[in-house]
Write a structure and sequence with these properties.
By secondary structure, the protein is an alpha/beta fold. The chain has one domain: Leucine-rich repeat, LRR (right-handed beta-alpha superhelix) (Alpha-Beta Horseshoe). It has 4 helices and 10 strands; from the N terminus they run ββαβββαβββαββα. The strands form 4 sheets. It has a 4-stranded parallel sheet, with no helix packed on it. The protein has a two-stranded antiparallel sheet with strand order 1-2. β1 and β2 form a beta hairpin. The chain starts with a strand and ends with a helix. Its main location: cytoplasm. It is found in: Cytoplasm, Cytoskeleton, Cilium axoneme.
């Protein structure tokens, strides 16, 4: 990690290593995660006052094996790539899910699929996500349809 102005600047390879370690902790029941990293900067740029560009991290795919999680909060400085949040549908034990300020990382499709498939949820926070902007693509509609068919017993 490289110390920045107010936080540590983490390179993508370091974030991947951290997420791999978190994913291996399969007994976790609660996780608060901030997964941010900088685009590859030149070594001399890492200590400049000018900020580097922050890039999206596919954190949800890495967390999808943590099926014992009951409480997951991905902190608001995290930048998720579009559709990454869909990987959280495997976390069916979740009772609390906070994805606020994920903007484009959580759109209409992801929100609908998560709300539909995570039936144990008691708290869902999607504030400041890109909701209500349409964008229902065929993959999202197909996934929601598959969830409906599974809930109906495969009929």
């Amino acid at each position: 990690m490289h110390e920045g102005s107010s936080r540590f600047r983490v390179r993508r390879c370091e974030v991947n290593d951290i997420l791999e370690g978190v994913a291996a902790a399969t007994s976790l029941t609660k996780l608060e995660l901030e997964a941010v990293c900088v685009a590859e900067c030149h070594e001399d740029d890492l200590h400049d006052e000018a900020p580097c560009d922050w890039v999206a991290v596919a954190a949800c795919r890495r967390l999808s094996a943590l099926t014992g999680l009951k409480d997951l909060c991905i902190l608001e400085d995290t930048i998720l790539p579009p559709c990454d949040a869909l990987a959280l549908t495997s976390l069916t034990s979740l009772t609390r899910l906070v994805l606020s300020n994920m903007r484009g990382g959580v759109g209409d499709v992801a929100a609908a699929v998560l709300a539909h498939q995570l039936t144990q949820l008691q708290h869902l926070d999607l504030r400041r996500c890109d909701l209500g902007k349409g964008g229902w693509d065929s993959a999202g509609i197909e996934q929601l349809g598959a969830a409906d068919r599974a809930a109906a017993g495969g009929q």
